[in-house]
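User: Just a sanity check before I run the rest of the batch. Below are the structure tokens for the first item. I only need the designed sequence back.
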């Protein structure tokens, strides 16, 4: 079911999420369905959106849902950065549609996590997918892209589409 996305300023977006336990798995399947439905509805409305973190729909668990060419669920992800190379880019967020934030992120990252079958997983991402997973991971720690702005002049409105 499509859930409301918490918007910039909602105090729940700034909270740390709790780890997922194996006992949580039966209840999380519904959350994953809600994340999928919410992401697809956002895509239909805004023509954007590749991933969403559970805290964005008010579920304070360490869960990220990504859908690029297939669904991927990250439970209790941890990030590692294999090298110091960084990139600067304009970041957007479902919690503040229409706003872009200039941030700096690592160009490459490795994610270690569990899946919905509680198997350990490892993924390596570069460039835009590395930025994406870092952005969603920040949501799990109550950090928004606005808090990572490179300076005080790093907020921009997206031009309205006609």
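Assistant: Here's the designed sequence for the first item:
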């Amino acid at each position: 079911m499509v859930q409301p996305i918490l918007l910039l300023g909602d105090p729940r977006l700034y909270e740390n999420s709790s780890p997922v336990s194996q006992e949580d798995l039966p209840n999380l399947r519904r959350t994953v369905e809600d994340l999928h439905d919410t992401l697809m509805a956002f895509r239909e409305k805004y023509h954007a959106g590749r991933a969403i973190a559970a805290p964005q729909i008010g579920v304070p668990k360490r869960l990220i849902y990504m859908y690029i060419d297939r669904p991927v669920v990250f439970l209790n992800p941890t990030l590692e950065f294999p090298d110091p190379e960084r990139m600067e880019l304009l970041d957007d967020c479902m919690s503040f549609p229409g706003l872009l934030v200039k941030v700096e992120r690592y160009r490459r990252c490795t994610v270690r996590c569990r899946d919905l079958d509680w198997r350990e997983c490892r993924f390596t991402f570069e460039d835009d997918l590395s930025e994406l997973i870092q952005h969603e991971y920040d949501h799990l720690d109550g950090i928004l892209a606005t808090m990572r702005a490179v300076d005080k002049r790093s907020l921009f409105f997206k031009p309205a589409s006609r």
